[in-house]
Amino acid sequence: MAVVEELIRTEEDGTISFGNYLLNTKSKVQDFEHNGDLYKVKTFKEITKLEKNGMFVYESVPGTAVTNFMATATGVDFFVEGTEDAQITLELKDDTEYRIFINDSNVGQVKTNMSGKLMLSVELGISKEVHVKIATL
User: Which residue stretches of the chain have pLDDT < 50?
Assistant: First the structure.
């Protein structure tokens, strides 16, 4: 896996990929159309943020590259890469319990708050890709 040079793209399987943690300055793409929705991505070495139709979807600190990102009514599934461990915040359904899987290992469950935010940390490093799957119970 590598950074997403074009900052955001549609993959052949219908998912999206976004983010470039190697950039030293903030870069963004607005109004990227995918399946009838408009996405905005802002990314560089310190943060990667994704919005869909003006609403928060994903944020990582520091910046990351995300591939094959798929959000459904029951959760999200994606691969993430970065130069160091990252804290990821996702917008999901509010007041809902989710099970978190990292590289197919169940690492626990979490209940989102009233705003639907879910936070997790992933251990990353150069050339290390992590598979994250979050699903409703």
Answer: none
Q: Return all residues near 121 (Cβ < 8 A) that are at least 6 apart.
A: 85, 86, 87, 88
pLDDT tens-digit readout, 48-66: 999 999 999 999 999 999 9
Give the tens place of pLDDT for each residue, 35-46.
999 999 999 999
Tokens describing residue 54: 């003006």
Structure tokens at 87: 């804290």
Domains defined along the chain, listed by start: 8-136 (2.60.220)
In the numeric block, which tokens belong to residue 22? 């190697």
DSSP 86: E
Q: Which amino acid, one-letter code, is at 105?
A: S
Per-residue pLDDT, 118: 96
CB atoms within 10 A of CB 11: 12
128 membership: H or E segment, kind and range: none
Whose tokens are 């993430």? That residue is 80
What is the chain's alpha carbon radius of gyration, rounded to the nearest angstrom? 14
DSSP bridge pairs for 37: 34
16 alpha carbon, distance to own chain's centre? 10
Amino acid in the structure at residue 85: D
